Amino acid sequence: MYLGIDCGTQGTKALLLDENGRPLGRGYARHALIERENGAREQEPQWWVDALREAVRQALAQAPGAKVVALGVSGQQHGLVVLDENRKVIRPAKLWNDTETAPQNETLVKALGGNQGCLEKIGIVPLTGYTASKLLWMQENEPENFNRIRHILLPHDYLNFWLTGKLAAEYGDASGTAFFDVRQRTWSKEVLAQIDGGTGHLIKALPELLSPEEIVGTLRPEVAAELGLSPDCVVSSGGGDNMMGAIGTGNVREGVVTLSLGTSSTVYSFRKESIADATGSVASFCSSSGGWLPLVCTMNATNIVTQTLTVVGKTVGDLDSVLAKTLPGADGMTFLPFLNGERTPDLPRARGSIVGLSSNNFTSENLVRAAIEGVTFGVLSGLDLILAGKEPSVIFAIGGGARSKEWRQLLADATGATIQVPMEEEAGCLGAAMQAMYAFRCVTGAPMDLADIADRCVGISQEERQTPRPDLREPYRLAMETYRSELEELYLHKKQ
Length: 496
Ligand SMILES: Nc1ncnc2c1ncn2[C@@H]1O[C@H](COP(=O)(O)OP(=O)(O)O)[C@@H](O)[C@H]1O
Ligand SMILES: O=C(CO)[C@@H](O)[C@H](O)COP(=O)(O)O
Hints:
binds adenosine-5'-diphosphate; seven-stranded mixed sheet; Nucleotidyltransferase, domain 5; 2 domains
């Protein structure tokens, strides 16, 4: 059996899987989040470990006697975990949605020769939220902590370290650091030298890079005993949560599109070759299955929807009925949901706006619909970029928001595509378990192609399939047009 673990922003999930991709047990534990008005978003890595323990305990309790031969870890991308000479965490991890480091990101991009210079040096344009600016922020704001850095890890690398005692990284998650050349798949000495002044301090702190068929190691005996697993259990390289979501939706071949509605919203589609986007909106990340995973991410997604529901005294359980009884365009109300800045478009210092209020449309229901539409229109702009304007016929929707039938219907109506969800809704966990299966088979001499593993393990739910209603395409096109013109007027125009 295989175990997939997914450390998201709001919590950690675990999924126990058999050889044929059937789920046998699952678990979940929430994380706290440190949020400050200056844009800081942080978590203690220890919280992820505690949540992993609990989620795995719950999953294993549902299948007593399960023999887990391999596990894989999926983690929120970009977070910075720094360890000292005793391999102890130095400070809380700054996360993917931390916008406090916007000035440091601007400094770095400028020093590297602007967007074009960055593309030439590392094949990607760093955006606020990527890991590099967090290191520069530490160097400028916490020099003592910065000098103590001996090891640099991403969230899933840290969990792998806790599990195995080994320091390692892999290409998919590393490609979101902005100190990694996404074409050559190597750490970038040039970017690191911009941060440490060329002392070599940071490059020495970076671990070895693994490819998907390699493993980090096996479980530390004390961790194995605590989790109720065998110390021979193999830990695969794992990856960023989007890379694992890609594997878990069979997005390991060209032509598949996955849209995730989690704390962030993301859209991505596997490619055999890397792409270069000089605007930085499309990130040419490496996938964790070989190849690349061009991705667009917006920072404001289900958290905005949940907060709006709370403000009007409703819960997630009310979301479907609110969407069903309101109309596309929320009667003219437009919500630009940049509550903690935004990554796409690149507006890390922005704050949100609600426009078009009138005495007729100002209702709690329209407010909720406008929040959902604002989040959706943001990610659909990303979809246009990923597919270069081509229209998809089918989209895989995953993440907590994809549980909502009416939100999926909205996606279908607005895009003209069929929205399908995988039979296993925790696609990040599934992808991590599938990658564990792949790596285990590689190291035990029974290799199997990841695409074949996907054919075996990724099913499509027939009940939760939403087909587009053609008569609603035009109202959504108009609402999206209003959203984009407000965005231009209120944010992008002012930026120039
Ligand atoms: N039925 C639902 N409809 C809409 N949103 C939902 C539903 N169930 C959960 N969510 C939202 O999904 C979010 C969690 O999504 P998830 O993908 O687990 O996030 P993360 O991986 O970032 O921790 C929460 O904000 C929650 O409100
Ligand atoms: O920064 C990105 C993608 O580049 C985010 O997608 C994070 O990886 C967080 O994921 P969720 O917690 O929303 O799953």
